[in-house]
Write the structure tokens for this entry.
Amino acid sequence: MRCLITCLGLLLLSQPLYASFLADRVQEEHLANGLTLLMLERHDAPTVSAYITFRVGGANEGQSNRGIAHLLEHMLFKGTKTLGTSDYLAEKPLLTKIEAVGSRIDRLKNDPDTVPEKLEELRKILRQLQQQHKQYIVKSEFSRIYAENGGVGFNAFTSKDQTTYLISLPANKLELWASIESDRLQNAVLREFYIEREVVREERRRSYESNPSGMLYEALIANAFTVHPYRNPVIGWDSDIENLSLAAARDFFERYYRPVNMVITLVGDFKSQYALQLVKNYFGAIPAGTRVPRVVSVEPPQHGEKRITINFDAEPALSIAFHKPAMPAPDDYCADLLMDILAGGSSSRLYKRLVVEEQLASDVRIYGAPGSRYANLLVIDATPRYPHTATELETVIYQELDRLKTEPVTTAELKRARNRLVTDNLRQMRSNKGLARLLSSYAALGDWRYMTGYADRIETIDASQLIAFANRYLLASNRTVVVLKREVK
């Protein structure tokens, strides 16, 4: 009840007041090895949310290792030299044999002169070794230990710009978290690599190659970008995943998943001095690692509409993307407001016209994609309501976008959009987990203080700036359109 009262009280504060309150309470520390630590004490409940975020993601991969960050996300749940194994000393020679055979298979499978029978024999040997290896594997030991100690939400995710590992747990288990996570960074064992690689390939088939919405999104991003690595899926293309090597995964991990690229965020019931000393004790001796290089590729201006049609046995769908700047550029704040005005709720322009009034669509939504560190896209998705077509939806959408170029949005619309954006941010901050996620993400992208100044920046955007944004970016020459049509057999 105390937490609920506190959270409701915070929501009653204006965003500027809460931003000031937040900025004063977040403690930022930097260890000698480059690790950034953010701490925010909240003593409403005896729990802590702990986020570890690395400034590395899909955009930081090269042509030879696309999908490696996502595969590593899977691999880092496999354990360490002490967790996830019943006997690491006995297991280690078997791991060496598995890697030798797996690496040899990878070299030979792309060689046109390879004798198929030889390749099949090696695969048989690999399966036998993997079967032997099972006797040493202790499945899901991280999850078991955390669950037995009251941990919830143990998970991870990889995006274009960052990779995050998270858990919420009782406050008196913070040292357990530090012990497990520092062990994972220093002693990770990438066991079951070749098995997990196939698991990720199956995940890709399920999420993109046989999933209409995944297929639509992947086609949109891959065609909207021609140069920037944002064009590549975080999971990787199938041929990329199939050829990822254990040596490459280990090298990528040992270089980049290190303190110089790392943000630890703790929000909850702890004393900052205790938490700081804990982090120093467990993470302070880890070598700094290599700073992730900034992506230097810049997407060139688009000079004409790109249009793609996908034929698939699924309900029709439409996706439209426009290039735009990313945070913290002023135009990105304009984009946030316009996205809310267009499709931020039942009273928004596109939703009201397409779904409510003319009933052309069953759904319409708008969002930014695919990353936040570099110039990205404003995306509009719409699903036609039978018997209407994607073409009808597209016509109405462009009519509404053209209105934005000449008619100022109303004062009421602008106020409603500002209030909704600010309120959504405040709602996310209500929980320890939500606040830890925001602080961690923005710190990894550049500066966590972005979130504390957001409402003030939104307040400075007026109707004339939105008109300028629409005329600058919402152009036919700057858009990519993907239409999913039901396959006719």
Remarks:
- The two ends are 59 Å apart (CA to CA).
- Confidence is low (pLDDT under 50) at residues 1-13.
- The CA atoms of residues 408 and 463 lie 5 Å apart.
